[in-house]
Write a structure and sequence with these properties.
Layout (H helix, E strand, L loop, with lengths): L3 E7 L3 H15 L4 E8 L5 H8 L4 E5 L4 H10 L6 E5 L3 E3 L3 H11 L3 E10 L14 E4 L4 E3 L2 E2 L2 E2 L10 E2 L7 E5 H6 L12 H11 L3 E12 L10 H18 L5 H21 L3 H17 L17 E2 L3 H7 L6 H4 L10
Parallel strand pairs: 1-2, 1-4, 2-3, 6-13, 7-14
Antiparallel strand pairs: 4-12, 5-13, 6-12, 7-8, 9-10, 11-13
């Protein structure tokens, strides 16, 4: 019997645990699946609450905040299971969600990583920003989703309910074969948080594994639980980590050209932030570039053990498509431009 560990990495998220952990325990525990709380040095009484209400749950305690990457790497190294599910504390699961994920892996044996459909916890008939019904990137490395193009979020009308290969699975609810997680050395701790799941999925594809979305499994996500969307710190991590990801995973033939274009576009966005009076965002972009140049030599370039090109890359610019469609693009309009996508 294959074992699945649902691992919630917590940092001062007691309010989310109180709201969502009862459902996770109810709908995710069985003879072959169990829930683990890994805690990044919380000081809000999270673990006391869990210990009191769920004394049988396994708790892994850390003294400090190791971030999303370090926290999960250190926690998963202590867990014996065939599958790991990385589940945010601000996610509401639904009946049968885990069974649907297992069925997807059985149907698609080449899948190494997968995600459910992620809808908004606030507007439950809309997709959620961080993943929607599967993640993709464009030729310049800008991420977008089936159901969410940049800031434009679609209503869920069952239009993206077919299983599909994707480029990346959201770290809010990502299921991965434990053997693959160990093979790739886990998440890259240079990232700390943000974009690390895209980097991981890119590396998984380069190693010959597929990444899938299984939308018959549904969860609801709050989003922005650790860093709000208007945080300069979050903006810095996203800009810096995107450069990290491109530097690590692009082929040498295009690496520096793509990075050059991206850094010019980043510079344009920094100037726009400055003109808008958002000095914190301007400094975040500049800081991201400084961090990239300072740290790039310690980044490990990915091995390319598969001759196949990654699936889920748009042949073109998602930003340009966004502008040309008046800021209201739909994924279905650009799907023909995405390389190698398979539907089941």
């Amino acid at each position: 019997m294959l074992k699945t560990a649902i691992v919630i990495l917590n940092w001062n998220g007691r309010h989310y645990l109180e709201r969502f952990l009862p459902g996770v325990v109810k709908y995710s525990t069985s003879e072959s699946s169990f829930v683990v709380i890994a805690d990044n040095g919380s000081t809000d009484g999270s673990l006391e609450w869990v210990s009191h209400h769920y004394p049988s749950l396994k708790i892994i305690r850390f003294d400090i905040n190791y971030g999303f990457t370090g926290g999960y790497n250190k926690a998963l190294a202590q867990i014996d299971a065939d599958f790991f599910v990385l589940l945010n504390s601000d996610v509401e699961v639904t009946p049968g969600w885990l069974d649907r994920m297992h069925e997807g892996f059985l149907t698609h044996p080449n899948a190494g990583v997968a995600m459910p459909k992620i809808l908004s916890a606030f507007e439950k008939d809309y997709f959620e920003y961080a993943g929607a019904s599967g993640g993709y990137i464009d030729i310049l490395g800008y991420p977008f989703c089936r159901g969410r193009i940049l800031s434009c979020i679609e209503k869920d009308r069952a239009q993206y309910n077919r299983d599909s290969t994707i480029f990346w699975a959201s770290g809010a609810a990502m299921m991965v074969k434990s053997s693959l997680y160990k093979e790739l050395g886990g998440l890259d701790e240079n990232f700390f948080a943000h974009m690390e799941e895209i980097d991981f999925c890119w590396r998984a594809q380069l190693a010959g594994h597929e990444v899938w979305a299984f939308p018959s499994s549904v969860v609801y996500h709050v989003g922005g639980g650790t860093l709000p969307n208007n945080s300069p710190k979050k903006l810095m991590l996203n800009y810096r980590n995107n450069l990290y990801m491109l530097y690590k995973n692009l082929p040498s033939s295009s690496r520096y050209f793509i990075l050059f274009i991206r850094m010019i576009l980043d510079g344009v966005s920094a100037i726009i932030f400055l003109l808008q009076g958002k000095r914190g965002f301007y400094k975040a972009v500049i800081g991201a570039h400084n961090e990239f140049f300072k740290n790039r030599k310690q980044l490990k370039k990915s091995k390319r053990s598969s001759p196949n090109k990654p699936t889920g890359v748009m042949r073109g610019s998602i930003v340009l498509s966004f502008i040309l469609r008046g800021g209201k693009p739909r994924f279905i309009d650009i799907a023909p431009l995405i390389r190698g996508r398979k539907l089941s």
